[in-house]
Amino acid sequence: MGEAKRKKRAHAAILEQQPGCIYCAGVSRATTVEHMPPIQMFRERQRPKGLEFPACVECNNGTSHSDLVASLMGRTYPDSDTDAGRQELRKLLSAVSNNVPGLLKEMQIGRGGQKLALRDIPNLPTGSGVLRANGPIVTKHMRTFGAKLGFALHFEALGTVVPQSGGVQPMYFTNVNAAKGELPKSIIDMLPERRTLMQGKREVSEQFSYSWLLTEEKRHSVFYSVFNNSFSILAVTALDRSEFLARNADQHPVIAPGDFKARRSAAPNC
Ligand SMILES: [Zn+2]
Asked: 20 to 30 A from 15, CA-CA: which of 66, 101, 127, 155?
């Protein structure tokens, strides 16, 4: 059987097993298979199989720009040391520049800023360039990406979608946050060892690793993913949104199933 045919069959099997979209609590029928994390996140698009999820067209397409932004963020450190890597980064930059207006400008901190940042953050890996990664555009997209990851890993871990009453609270941390000691270490330390995607002997733990913790009654779950040395996402899911801590919600808004659709119609261009 050819690769294309094999893929088609695998996708049909995924959609048959779970016909509802994982991002909108199964309200819409899933007709697409979504890779989370996306293929473009991986060097030379060499993404092992696994973590493929049923999604409806609206949720899938409505969040594609966030996948793009996260892929760019994931590829900014370590610097590519191959021509192919640099070429890929160039492509991502150009796609972001075409599709997400204002983002690249927002991320630039200039040479003076670079110097200050490197002086203030002594624990950064040597050779790091510092990008401003907390502006409103990048934050919005990384929240969406983090929420997607939460919905997806929830489904992977529990075999059920986050229900309509539930939600995801994603938190996004850059390597700068890590260097400043701003990661929620007490939570991360409780998590089991992170695993990665594997296909045969090929594994991608340097590029992506993930881990989760489910409470006993499975009403709350914590998912933690690390992308290169660039950023990490901590996503908490709950079956009931009222159980999220209100004091956290300003900084880390809770995203409900179906929110990606509303967002798309409200802001079609970003
Ligand atoms: Zn959907």
From this structure: 66
Is 80 exceeded by the pLDDT of residue 125? no
Distance 242 CA to ligand 1 centre (A): 22
Alpha-carbon gap, residue 244 to 220, rounded angstroms: 9
* For range 105-109, the mean pLDDT: 82
CA distance 21 to 202: 30
pLDDT at 221 exceeding the cut of 90: yes
Q: How far is the CA of 55 from the centre of ligand 1 (A)?
A: 5
DSSP states of 171-228: EEEEHHHHHTT-S-HHHHTTSPPPB--EETTEE-TTTEEEEEEE-TTSSEEEEEEEET
Question: Which backbone phi and psi does 56 adopt, to 5 degrees?
Answer: -85, 165
Kindly state the greatest CA–CA separation across the chain. 57
CA of 192 to the centre of ligand 1 (A): 30
**C-alpha of residue 249 to centroid of ligand 1, in Å:** 23
Q: Which residue has the higher pLDDT, 130 or 219?
A: 219
Q: Compute CA 229 distance to the chain's CA centroid, rounded to the nearest angstrom.
A: 14
Q: What is the DSSP string of 147-173?
A: HHHHHHHHHHHHSSPPPTT-EEEEEEE
